[in-house]
Amino acid sequence: MCPVVRPASSAYHRRMTRTDAPDRPRIAALIVAAGRGTRAGGGLPKQWRPVAGRSVAQWTLDAFDRHPSVDLIALVVGEDTPADLIPSTHATGLRVVTGGATRAASVMAGLMAVDGAADLVLIHDVARPGVPAPVIDAVIAALATHQGAAPALPVTDALWRGEGLVEGTVPRDGLWRAQTPQGFHLPAILAAHRAFAGEPADDVEVARAHGMDVAIVPGHEDNLKITAPGDFARAEQILERRGMDIRTGNGFDVHRFGPGDHVMLCGVAVPHARGLQGHSDADVGLHTLTDAIYGALAEGDIGTHFPPSDPQWKGAESHIFLTHAVEMAAARGFTITHADLTLICERPKIGPHAGAMRARLAELLRIEIGRVSVKATTTEQLGFTGREEGIAAMATVTLVKA
User: Fold this and answer.
1) Which member of 88, 104, 253, 391 has the greatest number of CB atoms within 10 A?
2) 306 is annotated as contributing to ligand binding
3) Would the annotation count 172 as a binding residue?
4) End-to-end Cα, the chain, rounded Å
């Protein structure tokens, strides 16, 4: 059986900068999402249904996309899955694979799709969107000393056997509730699946049948598997309390006046008796917003990414810098929700051009114009701006990762 790998809905970004150890194992997450999920009701298979503002599958992919050790995600879907339902990733490579008629066949397709691209694989049920990062951490850590590892919770309730009437009890000592991701050394679990006959309960069964040792690591109650209709409400509570990552960044920049007949401000050419001086086009508005975004991401400043000592940026249009910062934020999973810019100068007058500036900034920031503020003030003829020696700017931006 050869897996069909379809183009992903986002570009492939290999996470080579995620670790300082170049010889660390490459890790793939294999998300099994080819099932019908009919027991959960709702028409659509459960993995494509919304919960807490996103599809179940998107929540699940996000958990691995933002994990610093995961390099690649393989999403195994049904042959008839519409392309517009397939979620995206921001920082991790995504391979979309067509699955088989059974879960085992789908896992096999996913394993074949990542064979050679990873050393370790984390096999996870798409219907577990609340998997916490510490659970993923524990599985990965255990693979340093074991061929396999899987999270589980100890059984604490009394166990009965019976049909309508209690016919007996089952000792719960040593019993565990299995969860995913179940992690393995990729060549070993691929060989185990090739050798296994039948439909296993999970991948741990396949591994053990092949003689692999599988460590038990702590699971988590939030790692709920959505199975029945009522599970959606519980999953929504779990996901909503995770909260949002909200970042605020500030920027400040100054450029002096020099020869010229206009200044570039927020991507708009404003007529003036002098121009602004700088290594690039000296757009103090765009520079300030760019630094504010880098600041929110804790990624330095413009000079970090575009050194003024590099001649290729001589005279460059500053929208290049802002676009880089915007794309970096998107790659980290952040949405820019608001930008507030203040230009500090006596002249030129900003008011007549503020509307055009807001429109250009909205375009560059990829947000609606109602979330962009451009205003101006003077220093009452005090200081270098008051003496009309240059223009200063300050900005605040808000980034949100849901």
Assistant:
1) 391
2) no
3) no
4) 38
Ordered by start, the domain boundaries in the chain are: 4-240, 245-401
Those residues with Cβ within 8 angstroms of residue 385's Cβ, 6 or more apart along the chain or in another chain? 344, 345, 346, 378, 379, 391, 392
The answer to whether 279 is annotated as binding is yes
Cα 2 → chain centroid: 29
- Is 384 known as a binding-site position? yes
Residue in the block written with tokens 């790998």: 5
Q: What DSSP character marks residue 313?
A: G
213 marked among binding-site residues: no
Nearest one of 251, 229, 236 to 318, comparing CA atoms: 251
Task: Provide the token pair at 322.
Answer: 């802002």
The reply, when asked if residue 193 is annotated as ligand binding, is no
Q: Is 304 annotated as a binding residue?
A: no
Token pair for 246 = 């909200």
27 marked ligand binding residue: no
287 is in an annotated binding site: yes
Q: Is 163 annotated as a binding residue?
A: no
Q: How far apart are alpha carbons 395 and 375 in whole angstroms?
A: 10
Task: Give 362's DSSP letter.
Answer: H
Q: Is 301 annotated as a binding residue?
A: yes
Q: Is 302 annotated as a binding residue?
A: yes
Q: How far is CA 250 from CA 130, 267, 298, 325, in A?
A: 33, 19, 11, 13
What the block records as the tokens of 114 is: 């990542």
pLDDT values of the chain reduced to their tens digit, one per residue, 402 residues: 445 555 443 333 334 334 445 578 999 999 999 987 666 556 789 999 999 888 999 999 999 998 989 999 999 999 999 999 999 887 788 999 999 999 999 999 999 999 999 999 999 999 999 999 999 999 999 999 999 999 999 999 999 999 999 999 999 999 999 999 999 999 999 999 999 999 999 999 999 999 999 999 999 999 999 999 999 999 999 988 776 688 999 999 999 999 999 999 999 999 999 999 998 999 999 999 999 999 999 999 999 999 988 989 988 999 999 999 999 999 888 889 999 999 999 999 999 999 999 999 999 999 999 999 999 999 999 999 999 999 999 999 999 876
CATH architecture of 4-240: Alpha-Beta Complex (3.90)
The bridge status of strand 72-77 relative to strand 27-33 is: parallel
350 is in an annotated binding site: no
What's the CATH number of domain 245-401, 3.20.20.20, 3.30.1330.50, 3.40.50.300, 3.30.720.120? 3.30.1330.50
